[in-house]
């Protein structure tokens, strides 16, 4: 399979990985390198823009929300610098409005986190007319709900009352959910 991926990539194997989660960024870079890409990593919009301006890559994986701004700024700059670039936007905040915005500014595809290297590779190399196959192991609805609650909880600085208010949920119900292990 790795040989097939390497052949599909083409001669320019440059890949920008823009994500502020260092562990995820490094893990994805190692996995993509094994698949034949030549990854360059960045953790901020400013750093991503510098890379795009100096040498626009053929491929990019861009996180939507970064500490210093919005990853869509980098998508727009890359699309302007290299209109053939294949760009996948990753986000932990999956919503139809953000997916539409990402595609409008030039993203090739849009994936919700957690996405693995196989998902990212398939999205980067997919032909425009071909729909990607459904995931082999999709998350259960319970797991998706749990991930969303955990994300909001972290965004609220682990404040149970604030999280419950934002999720329109009773505080005690939220506490019970947070006390349980994550569903499979």
Automatic annotation (TrEMBL):
Superkingdom of the source species:
Bacteria
Q: Which GO terms describe its biological process?
A: regulation of DNA-templated transcription
User: Which PROSITE patterns does the UniProt entry name for this protein?
Assistant: RESPONSE_REGULATORY
- GO molecular function terms listed in the Swiss-Prot or TrEMBL record: phosphorelay response regulator activity; transcription cis-regulatory region binding
Any Pfam family matching the protein: Response_reg
* 4-aspartylphosphate modification, residue list: 63
Positions of the Response regulatory domain: 14-128
Q: Does the keyword Transcription apply?
A: yes
GO CC, any one term:
protein-DNA complex
Q: Which InterPro entries match?
A: ActR_PrrA_rreg, CheY-like_superfamily, Sig_transdc_resp-reg_receiver, WalR-like
Keyword terms: Activator, DNA-binding, Phosphoprotein, Transcription, Transcription regulation, Two-component regulatory system
- Role: Member of the two-component regulatory system RegB/RegA. Involved in transactivating anaerobic expression of the photosynthetic apparatus. It is a transcriptional regulator that is responsible for activating expression of the puf, puh, and puc operons in response to a decrease in oxygen tension.
Q: Which PANTHER family match?
A: REGULATOR OF RPOS, TWO-COMPONENT RESPONSE REGULATOR ORR33
Could you identify this protein by its name? Photosynthetic apparatus regulatory protein RegA
Organism ancestry: Bacteria, Pseudomonadati, Pseudomonadota, Alphaproteobacteria, Rhodobacterales
């Amino acid at each position: 399979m790795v040989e097939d991926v390497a052949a599909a990539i083409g001669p320019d194997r440059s890949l920008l990985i823009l994500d502020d989660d260092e562990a995820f960024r490094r893990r994805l870079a190692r996995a993509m390198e094994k698949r034949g890409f030549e990854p360059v990593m960045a953790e901020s919009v400013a750093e991503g823009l510098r890379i795009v301006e100096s040498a626009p890559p053929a491929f990019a994986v861009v996180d939507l929300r970064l500490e210093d701004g919005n990853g869509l700024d980098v998508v727009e700059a890359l699309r302007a610098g290299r209109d053939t670039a294949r760009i996948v936007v990753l986000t932990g905040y999956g919503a139809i409005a953000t997916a539409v915005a990402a595609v409008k500014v030039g993203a090739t595809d849009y994936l919700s986190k957690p996405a693995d290297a196989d998902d990212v590779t398939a999205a980067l190399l997919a032909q425009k007319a071909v729909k990607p196959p459904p995931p082999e192991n999709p998350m259960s609805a319970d797991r998706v709900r749990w991930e969303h609650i955990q994300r909001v909880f972290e965004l609220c600085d682990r404040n149970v009352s604030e999280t419950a208010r934002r999720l329109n949920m009773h505080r005690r119900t939220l506490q019970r959910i947070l006390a349980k292990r994550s569903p499979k």
